[in-house]
Design a protein that fits this description.
The chain is mainly α and about 150 residues long. The termini are far apart. The chain has a single domain, classed as Nucleotidyltransferases  domain 2 (Four Helix Bundle (Hemerythrin (Met), subunit A), Up-down Bundle).
């Protein structure tokens, strides 16, 4: 009788530079969070662009901490990648999809679009950015019982 050893499973290894993406996302979000103090400098368009960078960096940190990368580099690809590593609620999925529609991030095919959300939309987007930051920190730190901030 031939027996074989049971399969060995291993936890995915984080991709290098994960902490750098986390740090950069934190910095962009901090600027957006304090932007209301200088409305003459931080227009809604600039805040939106900085926020999308924060969300992108935090999403990448989550994926990299899980040892994976998105197939491409749009919000839709980041969302698809996130769904493989953590639960994403329908509401957060819808907001990320809206960001994808409004922000033609890294798309060579998409025509430039006006990217000026309303103040109400920015409040929703900033809240998503904050949830993404929580999820990123919990994922990168390996927290045993994450809050599932995106659920």
């Amino acid at each position: 009788m031939i027996t074989s050893a049971p399969p060995t499973y291993f936890a995915p290894q984080a991709i290098s530079e994960t902490a750098l993406f986390l740090e950069e996302g934190d910095k962009y979000l901090k600027v957006v969070s304090g932007a209301h103090k200088r409305p003459e400098v931080f227009t809604l368009e600039l805040m939106f662009n900085l926020l999308t960078l924060a969300i992108e960096k935090h999403a990448m940190a989550i994926l990299m901490a899980c040892g994976t990368l998105p197939e491409n580099h749009t919000f839709l690809d980041l969302l698809e990648g996130l769904k493989w590593v953590m639960p994403v609620s329908e509401a957060n999925h819808a907001t990320l999809s809206t960001l994808h529609e409004e922000e033609s991030m890294c798309s060579l095919d998409a025509a430039p679009k006006p990217r000026i959300p309303t103040a109400e939309q920015m409040i929703e987007y900033i809240a998503l950015g904050e949830r993404m930051q929580i999820a990123a920190h919990e994922t990168v730190s390996g927290k045993a019982n994450p809050s599932f901030a995106l659920e």
